Amino acid sequence: MMNEENNVTNGSTVRTPMPSGLPEMKTKPASGKSKLWLKLLLIVVISLGLLIPQQMMLHLVNERNDTLREAEQEVGGKWSGSQRIAGPVICIPPLKKDGNSLYILPENLSVQGDAQVQTLKRGIFDITVFTAPLDIQGEFVYPEELASYALNKYDLERAHLLIGVRDLHGLTENVTMQWGNNSYPMKSDREAGLGSVLRCPVDMKPIWAGQKVSFSVKLHLKGSEELYFVPVGNSNTVTLTSNCVTPSFDGSYLPVKREVSEKGFSASWKVLALNRDFSQVVIDWGTSVRESAFGVNMKVPVEQYQQTTRAVKYAFLIIVLTFSVVLFVEIRKGRPIHPVQYLLVGLALILFYTLLLSFSEHIAFLWSYVIASVMTVGLITAYMAAVLKICKTAIAIGLLLSALYIFIYVLLQLESYALLVGSVGLFVILGLAMYASQKVNWYQE
Questions:
Q1: In degrees rounded to 5, what are phi and psi of residue 65?
Q2: What is each CA distance from 72 to 17, 277, 319, in whole angstroms?
């Protein structure tokens, strides 16, 4: 019969042809071009997906930085916080309770101190604190500006002397004011505008009589990070020495002389009343007086979190360039690499930043970067050797990745020229990628 598919003849099977009216079914294989573009699409999706762990790394770095800040605040609360010295000044209270006090500032003010820094441990963090004995001297005179004020509104009999100290917790010894030939013990108190102060009553008769009165006081002070001074004198001279080798001079005025060496620093400031925007008699101890402070920040710079954050921002660039190199090798060598294997390589690149962050909290950032780079490059090189079965090609990928990590580290160390060097470096990398892409047959099967 014509519809029979098979006939048996002499023990053999003969296939009967199908009717000519039915079309023959054929399976057309996918073209090499469509496979390549599908692979490119998957690589792009994986690259974009790795942005999620990159953002998680940034959050982790910020979290560790916040932990450091909490440790600093905790130590500062127990030891003492940043310090700002304002005074001495004469305070004349008003006769009415709703009035403002009148402050007379000294004619001359001289401060000498020696701030010795030390490091306290809080968990894995090093917190910088200091002790600073300060010798404060100067003179008071009856200021000419006082003639323009209605002194009948103030209680001249209750005039007293104030020294503003930001954190009284840092005083280690009792304070005595030497006023002319007399000594007066100072007590802690609060004053509107100044905050925490040391206060003592003194004999003001020589001042009202137009005489000059000298004063001197010694403060044995503890603090952390900052030591600032408010230039309340008509002429202010501050001389400070320290064993801190990483000082940061800050505030409204920079030192006129400074020397920084491996043993520490010495600095001196000279500020005149002409440099300020307030006079020798002040009614409102406002922001203009407080913001005129100057001094030094003796905190040891903690740069690992800042540098790690900058390094994480380059993660997507490293991932894209590494995937591009692996894709070129896959096409040129004809060794197929599965998208899952691309994902594993991307995760290894992200893990680099976790290694960098964890190592940098215990050792120097340079060595942390070297160790994390060697571990990551070694892992990816060994994995590529196992996948491609070509050791030379895997080593070449490892060398290119090493060069990329070196380039990123150079960018991290540059500040003013980071944008320039980064732009030129990316231009060179793009040129090399264009050169390599022209040798790839993008339409091969």
A1: -65, -40
A2: 89, 34, 36
Question: Could you tell me the two tokens for 245?
Answer: 């080798």
CA distances from 318 to 94, 325, 342, 366 (A): 68, 11, 13, 19
pTM: predicted TM-score of the whole model, two decimal places? 0.74
Tell which of 300, 333, 359 closes a domain. 300
Mean pLDDT for the stretch of residues 59-78: 86
Burial environment of residue 19 by CB neighbours within 10 A (0 to 12, 13 to 18, 19 or more): exposed
Q: Which of 300, 333, 351 is the last residue of a domain?
A: 300
Number of domains in the chain: 2
Asked if 92 contacts 82 with a C-beta cutoff of 8 angstroms, the reply is no
What is the model's pLDDT at position 286? Answer: 66
What range does the domain containing 290 cover? 79-300
Q: Are residues 151 and 85 in the same domain?
A: yes
pLDDT surpasses 50 at 293: yes
Task: Assess whether 294 and 310 both reside in one domain.
Answer: no
C-alpha 373/C-alpha 406 separation (Å) is 9
What six digits make up the tokens of 34? Answer: 């469509």
Instruction: Indicate if 55 and 166 belong to the same structural domain.
Output: no
- Is residue 221 over pLDDT 90? yes
Which residues lie across from 198 on neighbouring strands? Answer: 163, 188
Neighbours of 34 (CB within 10 A): 9
Summarize pLDDT for 41-56 with one digit per residue, the tens.
888 888 888 889 888 9
